[in-house]
Design brief:
Layout lengths: L4 E5 L6 H6 L5 E3 L6 H9 L6 E7 L3 H4 L4 H6 L6 E5 L8 H6 L3 E3 L6 H17 L1 H9 L19 E5 L3 H12 L3 E5 L6 H4 L3 E2 L2 H7 L2 E4 L13 H5 L5 E5 L8 H9 L3 E6 L10 H4 L4 E3 L8 H21 L13
Parallel strand pairs: 1-2, 1-3, 3-4, 4-5, 6-7, 6-9, 7-8, 9-10, 10-11, 11-12
Length: 332
């Protein structure tokens, strides 16, 4: 028998030495396909037979499309591990993978600090209303004419964190430094140690009491459009919304209407419902801070993510199991 194969979907940008070291354990292969149709054809033709694990990037969706039931069904029988280089893994149908006996991993903690940094940047920028004057300054109009409305200090404001995972907990520590009171809602109440002093509240209470609402939850069928018209109606008038999770956890049409109506005073977004397209109502609103999905856009974080993901490939080859699996498969 020859060596097993590892399929690379996407590119290794930084951890080249670690990736190349896997060649002592497996043959490293890549698709020729540059479209989903071609990739499915290669799968159907048996080109990837013998592949035990695949390393996939977020950007590889441009080649393969999402890892849905149709694609998973065509993956080689030999494939047992999908190593996804990202914290969010909504591009992968975990249920379909589980039915096929395929384990899925993600990169859950390497992204926490960098994403929470962007999260805090957006909270401060949106609260202070910086975006309007940043635009005016580039147009030679100083702060703007007329000047923008006064912004708000973070001190004493209630920050509601929806989704208190690694990024949410990291954000809580950063918000503490700015004197914010932190409440959170999660599927499950955290231990006192993990909560770090944040108060657990119901979803409705978080909506009603928060001055700033930060979305830090994964995208799945239960969280899609979790924030929409009826949720905006329950919020304080003048609330600030920040999203560094996935765009589709907010109904962007409803968000634009809430902004136009003054229910939402400002918002800061790093993610969008139909990336790379951005809702024109968001682009047109100067009170909206827009960042093009750069939560993990640092050299240190991207390197750490690649090393983590390569570590999962190595563990799969050497031990027959990855160092971590996604929560849906923790008990499978």
């Amino acid at each position: 028998m020859g060596k097993p194969k590892v399929l690379l979907l996407g590119a290794i940008d930084h951890a080249h030495e670690s990736w190349n070291s896997l060649s002592s354990l497996a043959d490293l292969v890549a698709p020729e396909a540059r479209s989903r149709a071609d990739f499915l054809s290669e799968c159907g033709a048996g080109k990837f037979d013998g592949v035990v694990a695949t390393y996939r990037t977020f950007a590889s969706v441009e080649i393969t499309g999402v890892f849905d039931a149709e694609l998973v069904k065509l993956l080689p029988e030999s494939l047992k591990f999908i190593c996804h280089n990202g914290a969010g893994y909504d591009q992968v149908d975990v249920h379909a993978c589980t039915e096929r006996g395929i384990k899925v991993s993600n990169v859950p903690t390497a992204v926490d600090d960098a994403t929470a940094d962007v999260n805090m940047f957006l909270i401060l920028g949106a609260l202070r209303g910086f975006n309007t004057s940043m635009l005016a300054l580039r147009e030679g109009k100083w702060r703007g004419n007329p000047p923008p409305p006064l912004g708000h200090d973070p001190e004493g404001k209630t920050l509601g964190i929806l989704g208190m995972g690694g990024i949410g907990r990291n954000l809580k520590k950063k918000a503490d430094a700015f004197g914010m009171k932190v409440v959170y809602h999660n599927r499950n109440k955290l231990s006192e140690e993990l909560a770090g002093g944040a108060e657990y509240v119901s979803f409705e209470t978080l909506l009603a009491d928060s001055d700033v609402i930060s979305l830090n939850l994964p995208l799945n069928k239960n969280t899609r459009h979790m924030i929409s018209t009826k949720e905006f109606e329950k919020m304080k008038k003048g609330v600030v919304i920040v999203n560094t999770a996935r765009g589709a956890v907010i109904d962007e049409d409803a968000l634009v209407k809430a902004l136009d109506a003054g229910v939402v005073w400002s918002c800061g977004l790093d993610v969008y419902e139909e990336e790379p397209k951005v809702h024109p109502g968001l682009v047109a609103n100067p009170h909206v801070m827009l960042v093009p999905h750069m939560g993990t856009w640092t050299y240190e974080t991207q390197l750490a993510m690649e090393e983590w993901n390569i570590g999962n490939v190595r563990a799969a080859l050497e031990k027959g199991k990855m160092n971590n699996v996604v929560p849906e498969q923790a008990d499978v």
